[in-house]
Amino acid sequence: MPVGRLAIGDWFVPEGGFDVDRDVSRHKPVLLGEVVRFLNPRSEGVYVDATLGGGGHTEAILRASAPNGRVLAFDRDPDAIRRTGKRLASYGDRLRTIIGSFADLRAHLEEDARDARDGVDGIVADLGLSSDQLGNPERGFAFSLDGPLDMRFDPTQGPSAADLVNELAEDQLADLIYEYGDERRSRAIARRIASRRPITTTKQLRSAIVAVLGPRRRGIDPATRTFQALRIAVNQELAALDLFLDQAPRCLRQGGRLIVISYHSHEDRAVKHSFRARPNDEFHVLTKKPVVPDASAVADNPRARSAKLRAIERIG
Ligand SMILES: C[S@@+](CC[C@H](N)C(=O)[O-])C[C@H]1O[C@@H](n2cnc3c(N)ncnc32)[C@H](O)[C@@H]1O
What we know:
This protein is α/β, with parallel strands linked by helices. It has a domain at about 30-130 and about 240-315: Rossmann fold, CATH 3.40.50. It is about 35% helix and about 15% strand. The protein has 13 helices and 7 strands. A 7-stranded mixed beta sheet has the order 3-2-1-4-5-7-6, sandwiched between helices. α1 (about 30-40) packs across α2, α7 crosses α10 (about 225-235) and α11 (about 235-245) runs parallel beside α12. The longest helix is centred in the middle third of the chain and has 12 residues, at about 170-180. About 50% of the residues are buried. S-adenosylmethionine (SAM) binds near residues 50, 56, 74 and 153.
């Protein structure tokens, strides 16, 4: 995979991180106009935002579907739900927030007391992590900020990145870094990490990687690939995406659309294959090629540079 297609470098995180105590989001929604155009929200419609984050997509859908459109919004991160739920409280019961994984989409929709259990008019999933998570040193996602090596979307569940780094066998760690980070020097990096255990902070991890790769490679921080790999593994992101892609198309009503925005080739491949595998008489792929942001959108929002949007419509 070419370096330019890497998901997240944190070169756009301000020094020291964002001011995380404020209930505002620093996350700029990616491909916002395109999401609204594909969903074409209407009043009376019911929509799912599978990844609420800072609520940029949700708020645009709520506005476009006024006065009665509803959004059910998921996030695994309780803090994102709390902060964004508070920010969007003025939309009242048009917005329902759910702390949980989009991997359990169908079960959550079946629990809906209103009409979502019968199918929804649109679903959007904007994968990966938000700028609010990346910019908070306490969450341990950013190699440019020192903090505990955590990386869990839901900090109440599952092993952290530090647990993986300190407890996996060296060859398992190397495989993980190679598979999810496309890092060619994975074996040498895993060896160096193993020799420096315990590693408990982002700074310690980055320093072990820099000891192998040197300070910078073609403008990309040497820690980018290894951090991406650990984040994907900690949150079992590809398994969650597969479960979501299995369920989401059949949660749509006829005419309903599913939109997925991905940020690295593993995710995009999964989306592309899953859309193509759907029967032609039931689903129509709306994006032969992925929609990508134009140069001005990338200049305005560096996080958008690797985004790829794919959409499918239920026709039968
Ligand atoms: C790129 S951000 C979404 C940003 C949002 N679209 C906006 O406009 O602010 C991705 C969000 O998805 C959440 N997330 C990641 N995996 C998830 C999963 N399996 N289920 C639900 N939420 C998930 C992350 O916690 C993060 O808040």
